[in-house]
Design a protein that fits this description.
Chain lengths: 328, 328
């Protein structure tokens, strides 16, 4: 079997997650990892695979079928996405929801010019959660959709705490409010405020002699990040942080509650994820869609796509016949 | 807005469910109901819509965009599917899993000759459950998938009980075993027998003077239907049956538990449905896929498809731009 040759661009948490996923998909092969750092300084898990500087990417134009972009959505992807899509098929997990239309347009233009495929915003949210919002809303046009996240680490919120004076290290968990989830599951279609839906649990390692009261106050009143939530702050040691908070679990629920017919019949559609490792799961989803990008490109298609545009069969290693016979 | 003109073929439970779904989708219009009975004898819910004999279907070739076939999978659809696909775009909920490959091939041939689209096996299982098996398995190639059905009425099992001597009426519920579901959710990937996964609850109205012991014995030992399950039999009156068992609720769970990476990280993907009305929900899914069939046909495509082949965006009333901006 000819393998699909993957390049990983950016070797952080997601990049390592993608590397793990490639090893578990026998039709995939990691061809190179691209980095902005000195290639010699980057050691990767997979033996015998090159680490290449990003500036030398084009030298591998004929050796890579799909580039999986693992940069950040704030500043990396808006530049890298269109740039790389001009020369390679790409997949990314762009997750700044508000800027998706603009990013899609930019990737679309570059990918079409380069005759490549670019599938953007792949992962679990955006990604699998988006798909489930779409399917559920299409099936039940009259109803309400609720998305709950957690329990899981929010990198953005953890970073925000770390910027507070007197904070040495910190981690923040987003936690869905069980009562709200149960209320949604009951089918009552409640109106829920931000505060009703999620709690924020913060574990903070203070600098020696820091003003703990001031730190707690600074967190709880931080606009956008914490002020609209019920937030708990627990001070711990660096050792406790390492021992108990070094995994990256996450998950959540998409629930749609809707009505059909004329006798008020109600239906609940629920999709949930419980993930030991957010980056490994995200990497696994990215690799499925890399398979789809490869197939679409082979079929002569080009331009940007989202998960909404990809027929499910494209994601599977199995043939259409096998899928129909085994799991339809 | 030009509406998508739907024909319903067969006016049983599913046909009525489809009728309800059309009324809740503003881009859809019910054009006619086709029946094998005398059209005058069939009264439908929607005002001003024709009931037409199946033999006169071709007279409406230019008036219908998609035919939703609501016949049974055992004998109706294998004949009707290919026959009607030769002249119309069709959607059906063919659910004899073992015969899907053969049925797909027959519909494919007829639909291609007629330049139509035929989307087969649409509903929730096969249908939404199949999709979730595919997505979850593609994301986590190393793992196990479990499907649980219920609590819900099994028409086939209810019919089997009604054929027993001394039984006047009966209804059978398939019930997932809570302990098994919890075990699967824990990620332990248990091996489960048929008996471990589901219970069968039977509510039976006996004929006057019938031998209750004999009925119970006949049910519990019935091969294929009940002998491999833990089965309970409760005798009730016709009035109780009407009052407490006339709704058609159903639902179930698709759960995949799988591993990623090298540190045994585990992930649980769960999709669940809790349905007040099985036929109304199935009808709602069929109507989404009727929209996709219409769009594919307009785009010049033809042949058979399953839910695996349909890009999710095809199902939604929203445009690709709206979907990306609002729910990606």
């Amino acid at each position: 079997m000819e393998k699909i040759r993957i390049g990983i661009v950016g070797y952080g948490n997601i990049g390592r997650g993608v590397e793990c996923a490639i090893a578990r998909n026998e039709d995939m092969e990691l061809k190179a990892v691209f980095t902005r750092r000195e290639p010699e300084s980057v050691t990767i898990k997979t033996e015998g695979v090159k680490v290449v500087h990003m500036d030398d990417m084009l030298s591998m134009k004929d050796d890579i079928d799909v580039m999986v972009l693992c940069g950040g959505s704030a500043t990396d992807l808006p530049v890298m996405g269109p740039e790389i899509a001009a020369n390679f098929n790409i997949i990314d997990s762009f997750d700044t929801h508000a800027r998706i239309p603009e990013y899609f347009a930019n990737v679309d233009k570059a990918a079409k010019e380069g005759k490549n495929i670019g599938i953007i915003s792949v992962g679990w949210d955006p990604g699998m959660f988006s798909l489930n919002r779409l399917y559920a809303e299409a099936i039940l046009p009259q109803g309400s959709t609720y998305t709950f996240w957690g329990k899981g680490v929010s990198q953005g919120h953890s970073d925000a705490i770390r910027r507070i004076e007197g904070v040495k290290n910190a981690i923040q968990y987003t936690v869905p409010v069980e009562k709200a989830v149960e209320c949604v599951r009951s089918g009552s279609e409640p109106e829920l405020t931000t505060r009703d839906k999620h709690l924020r649990e913060c574990y903070v390692v203070p600098e020696e002699g820091a003003d703990l009261k001031a730190i707690e106050e600074a967190i709880k009143t931080m606009p956008n990040y914490f002020d609209e939530y019920d937030t708990t702050v627990t001070f711990i040691t660096e050792e406790e942080l390492k021992a108990e908070h070094s995994k990256m679990p996450h998950g959540g629920f998409v629930i749609r509650s809707g009505e059909t017919g004329t006798e008020r019949n109600r239906h609940i559609i629920e999709y949930s994820l419980k993930l030991d490792s957010n980056p490994e799961f995200t990497g696994s989803v990215l690799i499925c869609y890399a398979r789809a990008a490869y197939r679409l490109s082979k079929a002569g298609e080009s331009g940007a796509r989202s998960v909404f545009d990809i027929a499910p069969a494209m994601l599977s290693m199995k043939t259409a016949e096998e899928l129909r016979a085994q799991i339809l």
